[in-house]
Amino acid sequence: MIDNLLVENKLRKIEMFIREIENEKPPPNFESFSKNIVFKRFVERNIELSIEQMINVCKHFVSALDLEEPKSYANCFEIIANENIINQESLHTFKLMSGYRNLIIHGYDTVDDSVTYGIYLKRLNNFRLFINAVRNYLSNHMDVSKK
Question: Pick from 3, 18, 100, 104: CA 20 to 30 A from residue 45's CA?
């Protein structure tokens, strides 16, 4: 059974992490961003924490709905997309996000500053797409979830 409170708490954490990023004064350009190690690491960490929460929500749906066991975090998003929890149009984006998280967590070489900067400037709204999709699903499926 889906635990709405648990899912909502994770969604709120994502909102908090993204809001923290947005509330900071941005560097004026990419060069300033890449030289400001503290700010860059802050952005990377908050993005990582947000993606972690997305993955936790995804894993909760898989478990609560007794879906197939995901082979990877990217596959977890595929599974919940197949259940219409998130839409197929956003699936590719969410899979890329899980890949970015893996780069940060496992330190595969170094994270390309231009990728982080691009997410920071143009892609934070992708987290809201996920949040809205999940909330929409929950509101339309209240009979199968814990209230």
Answer: 3
Range of the domain at 27: 2-142
Distance of CA 57 to the CA centre of its chain: 9
CATH at 110: 1.20.120.580
pLDDT in tens, 8-41: 999 999 999 999 999 999 899 999 999 999 999 9
Q: Which residues pair with 146 in a beta bridge?
A: 3
Per-residue pLDDT band for 147 (boundaries 50, 70, 90) equals very low
Closest by CA to 117, choosing from 70, 58, 61, 47, is 47
pTM (whole model) above 0.85: yes
Q: Tokens 């975090």 map to which residue?
A: 73
